[in-house]
Amino acid sequence: MTRMMDKGGMMTRVAVNPKVLEWAAERSESDRGELTGRFPKLDRWLAGAEESTLHQLESFSKATSTPLGFLFLEAPPVEQLPVPHYRTVSDRSVHTPSPGLLDTIYMMQRRQEWLRESLIEEGRDRVPLVQCAKPAQRPAVVAERLREHLRLDATWAGEHGDWSAAQRALRDAMDMRESWSSSTGSSAITRIGRWT
User: Fold this and answer.
1) Which of 25, 27, 44, 146 could bond to 49 as cystine, CB 3.0-4.6 Å?
2) Positive or negative, the Cα torsion across 130, 135, 141, 142?
3) Radius of gyration of the chain (CA)
4) Nearest to 66 by CA among 112, 20, 2, 15
5) What is the Cα–Cα distance from 129 to 107, expressed in whole angstroms?
6) Tell me, what CATH number does 6's domain have?
């Protein structure tokens, strides 16, 4: 850190690796023009021509949904999905997870761990279906096994007027089998089993 005098007194400037700032900007999936509008000196920071103030860095951290401490790393971190299998629309692969996706997965993992501990404390039995599928198995085979567990026929979703009605029916079926599901916004993460 370097300190420079300003009209109002002392201002703290912070030396940050421009590659880390670039990583944070790209990771946030924010519009670059919008970021530059909010941070007029962003191009100078990225070029290493000027250091940001600590206050500017804190604001940049919030704007890019990047933990402030990450911005002080010597090199951009390599973030990986904390789950082995993540399914997307059209089965597209996710090379670099967005901050929103990571936040959602971490929140769901915290919920899962809380529920797991609660059910163990209550003395509930483990559902035999938990961890019965293997990564090499065809998705259709696994889906059939889950439908059987939930006592749903192959056309169950089409029996409902829209996706939200189908989701309610799925939740009801899961409740009947003492399984759980949780959703956030338009994302739904479903976990089969009383505890895993």
Assistant:
1) 44
2) positive
3) 23
4) 20
5) 24
6) 1.10.260
Distance in angstroms (rounded) separating the CA atoms of residues 101 and 69:
19
**32 with 68, same domain?**
yes
Report the alpha-carbon distance of residue 57 to residue 149 in Å, rounded: 51
Residue with more model confidence, 127 or 146? 146
Output the CA–CA distances (angstroms, integers) from residue 145 to 8, 34, 101, 137, 160, in the order listed.
68, 48, 28, 11, 21
Which of 81, 67, 80, 82 has the alpha carbon at shortest distance from 20? 67
| pTM flag (> 0.85) | no
Q: Quick check: is 121 in a domain?
A: yes
The residue with tokens 């007027």 is 161
As for how many domains the chain has, the answer is 2
* Residue 146: both structure tokens together: 């889950």
Sequential DSSP letters for 156-182? GGGGSSSHHHHHHHHHHHHHHTT-EEE
- Residue 177, burial from CB neighbour count under 10 angstroms (0-12, 13-18, 19+): middle
7-24: pLDDT as tens digits:
555 678 889 999 999 999
Burial 66-104 (b: 16+ CB within 10 A, else e): beeebbeeeebeeeeeeeeeeeeeeeeeeeebebebbeb
Q: Are 193 and 177 in contact (CB under 8 A)?
A: no
Q: Do 60 and 11 belong together in one domain? A: yes
